[in-house]
Amino acid sequence: MLAPVAALLALLSGCAQSTSTGESTVHGGEASLALPDLSQVTVLGGMSGRTLLGLGLIVCVMGLAMGVATYLQMRKLEVHTSMREVSELIYSTCKAYLSQQGKFLVVLWAFIAAVIVVYYKVLVGFGWGRVAVVIAFSLIGMAGSYSVAWFGIRVNTLANSRVAFASLRGKPLPLHRMPLKAGMSIGMVLISLELLMMLIILMFLPREIAGACFIGFAIGESLGASALRIAGGIFTKIADIGSDLMKIVFKIKEDDARNPGVIADCTGDNAGDSVGPSADGFETYGVTGVALVTFVLLGVHDPAVQASLLVWIFVVRAVMIVASAASYQLNDLWTARRYRDADHMDFERPLSNLVWLTSAACIVATFLTTWFVLADTAAADQWWRLALIVSFGTLAGALIPELVKAFTSTSSKHVREVVKSSRQGGPSLNILSGLVAGNFSAYWLGIAIVSLMGGSYLISEQGLGDLMIAPAVFSFGLVAFGFLGMGPVTIAVDSYGPVTDNAQSVYELSVIEDIEHIDDELEREYGFAPQWERGKLMLEENDGAGNTFKATAKPVLIGTAVVGATTMIFSIIMGLTGGLTDGIQNLSLLHPPFLLGLITGGAIIFWFTGASIQAVTTGAHRAVEFIRTTIKLDGVTKASEADSRKVVEICTQYAQQGMLTMFLGVFFATLAFAFVEPYFFIGYLISIATFGLYQAIFMANAGGAWDNAKKIVETDLHAKGTALHDATIVGDTVGDPYKDTSSVALNPVIKFTTLFGLLAVDLAVSLTDQGRGTLVVSLAAVFFVISAYFVHRSFYGMRIQTSLEGDDEPALLDEPAPDQPTTDVPTDDVPATEVPSPSLAADDLPAAEQDSERVAEKVSTSTKASTKASTKAPAKASGKASPRKASTAKAPSKVAEEASTR
Known about the structure:
It is a multi-pass membrane protein. One of its GO terms (molecular function) is magnesium ion binding. Residues 808-902 are annotated as: Disordered. The chain crosses the membrane at residues 52-74, 104-122, 128-153, 182-203, 209-228, 282-301, 307-330, 351-374, 386-408, 429-455, 467-486, 556-574, 594-613, 654-675, 681-702, 749-767, 773-791. Belongs to the H(+)-translocating pyrophosphatase (TC 3.A.10) family. K(+)-insensitive subfamily. By secondary structure, this protein is mostly helical. The protein has one domain. The protein contains 22 helices and no strands. The chain is globular, with a radius of gyration of 28 Å. The protein starts with a helix and ends with a helix.
């Protein structure tokens, strides 16, 4: 890593020295922009704009207070010691992971800070004070992404054990309210903290340095989100695949406490589904705001209109926080009344109600606030158009989740099709059906996004041109702004997933059912008789709802990134064309560099997709290798903490290695293409946004379909341990890196590339204007070579070493594990399709040659352990034996009946 960094700094320093004797023509881009005087804005009733923004600060503080209060309440909820110990172990591994990531971020930040110093101080000629401001706010932005990620895992790891324990009461309502409350606290803290930081810049710092503050802040949070999102996605899927494959190899149950990969899987649920989305949402909200601020300062010439629009944007943001909180409270009251005494509950329905209620409330609030703020300003005639454009985005925030559910929900016809295909065709047709779902979803979501953007464009043509240039671009930015208007709720329903997923794991890992006299203890200490089988079934059903709504947030965030990127690209175009007055003809397919840029962007997207999956594949191979040779299935009830932590270390190692390689590949590609030719770079940015949008939607929803197809087999068909279940597990392991690694990582990559490209292309153009075109071309070549090195390394440095490369043939699992007795369901209802065990041995393991014998021995002992466990149940309290027996007796006819109708 140090060699390319040194090369970059040396080359940039050389450029700086060559221009130091003359006056710099580099203007510093967005960092040179100054804010208008916001005190000149007056709204209805004579209230000043700054007073309104001050009220926004109060809203932010209240949002933060709500998050802290929820955290304190969550700690006080009742939970059994066995479950609390598991959740605290998960939290401790999450802390270790996040601490490692923090150290890693500091190294990356030091690299970016060095580039900022060379660019702004040496080339642009800023004073040290302004350079320090950019660097300081880049650190603040990165710290913001990191802090909300930390808060998210703390709240989620408190909630998971409380949800697991609440399931024993047999009532579904607490299982819905707890994870949603935890998610809402994360959403409120995330959005409130982001808005608070931006309001501080807007209100309390000198107007002349506000542009530098905003650009530094955006770079920092984008850096933090990119690293945490990419690494988190790799980590979680290494752990998930490593844990899931053990179910096939050893015929053990889901989240078996003897499997040392399960703790890593739980840690990964938080690293990938909590840390990543929290940092990503924080960055998305901030970068979209910075893009809108930049457009207003560049595209609107009247300072009075600039001030009015800036006040309006941030007041609407604050009001939407209030609308989201109020909608959550109303929905919670309705849900509590509706399901207070219910024994059954559709866990997805209250979540859908919340999304639609929040969307409607935010739209109403947008119109009222826009009228109130703009009615007495120079933009008074346009208030309803601006409100309507924002509402298109807010509507998208509710419409897109509904479209996603059509392809990923457990009630979806596409997901049911995956199960039907798996029944007759095994893993191959399972995978093909999932690919169909993903492709169809990309069509429908793409059409929806284009329709809403098209509607905003038509509205923008009805008079916004009187206030600004390129009103359509501003309208696209407002659509992205509307996407995020209901941000607290979007984050809440997304965070619902990792809590429900972890709750199911905590239940199994606690082995609470095997504790001596546990029924008497629960009745004596907590005042209820546990409903074991009912509780486990509800946890699985709730996990299905969590899977669905985790999937709904992904297209919202990627859609925001793409639509928001349009606004940021506009600022580059403004600088290149002198305010759209010169060189417009270069933004055409008739300009070859622009066309070549459009083609190049797709190459980067497809490389990045492959590289991220390769990192997961290699890491999962190593994790499986370790788990298979250390797992103990006889004589123990839990895997050792040391083995579990070792799996976490393996996941962290490969996540960081993969993330660093891909990040540097993207970073130097951005520099290289920005230096090739400015309009080539614009085409490139448009291309990665377009290709990235459809690639991300396709992969996210295909993965969601595979995930919930497995859930149907487990909860509806009660077919765990069968060939059908094995087929859906294979599909799920394919979908894991699709939905939680590659697709979600494209979002911060698009934003980071666009944002950092603002600086890079400005530098390249300025050097060319100074007559140093040859140097610029040389730099482009050097940066491209460095990028190509990391692209090459992302495969050849990460690939799995096998016997095909000349090593001795490692021991393989040549035969599938023998059939294992199960009390869950007979296998006569499913095809006798055998799912062969994968070749999972590795070259660098000292005892690899003895692996086959060890695995065979463990499979044998697994069967014995399973038999021992099943004979132990009658000795336990009678309260648990009866439900198990009933469930077993029901399975044969029930599965046959349901399977024939699926």
